[in-house]
Amino acid sequence: MRARIVWRMRFCPACGTALTVNIDRRRLVCPRCGTEERMRGGTVHSRSGPEVEKIVVIGEGERGLRTTPETNAECPRCGNMRASWWMVQTRRADESPTQFYRCTECGHTWREYS
Questions:
Q1: Has 95 been annotated as catalytic?
Q2: CA angle (62 as vertex; 61, 64 as ends), nearest 5
Q3: Identified catalytic residue from 24, 51, 53, 94
Q4: What is the pTM of this model?
Q5: d(Cα 101, Cα 82) in Å, to the nearest integer?
Q6: Residue 75, class by beta-carbon neighbours within 10 Å (0-12 exposed, 13-18 middle, 19+ buried)?
Q7: Strand locations in the chain, DSSP E?
Q8: Residue 94: active-site member
Q9: Which of 67, 71, 87, 104 is most buried (most C-beta within 10 Å)?
Q10: 58-95 pLDDT, tens per residue?
Q11: Active site residue: 37, 95, 105, 112, which one?
Q12: Helix, coil or strand: residue 86
């Protein structure tokens, strides 16, 4: 179990960054400019909860898999004639999507506007 510190969020009066807690010194410290404030109230509350289990989204074995379709396209970097491709709507919805290509040989990525 890990203890988490609970406090009312405060912001640095000098630069506006969220202050962090330094429990040993009982101070609120700005990580950006170093401004310090005394913690108000004198009590630090903590609560314990179960440690969160990490979820593996992509396993080591699956990282090398390529699931995007492939097509004949010349890589501008190495001249290879095979590339995987995908489309992304990078601009407004009423404009055509951008098509991206990634060379199967050198991994270079480029885009083509429709």
A1: yes
A2: 90
A3: 94
A4: 0.44
A5: 9
A6: buried
A7: 2-6, 20-22, 27-29, 36-38, 45-49, 70-72, 82-88, 98-103, 109-113
A8: yes
A9: 104
A10: 566 666 667 789 999 999 999 999 999 988 888 788 88
A11: 95
A12: strand
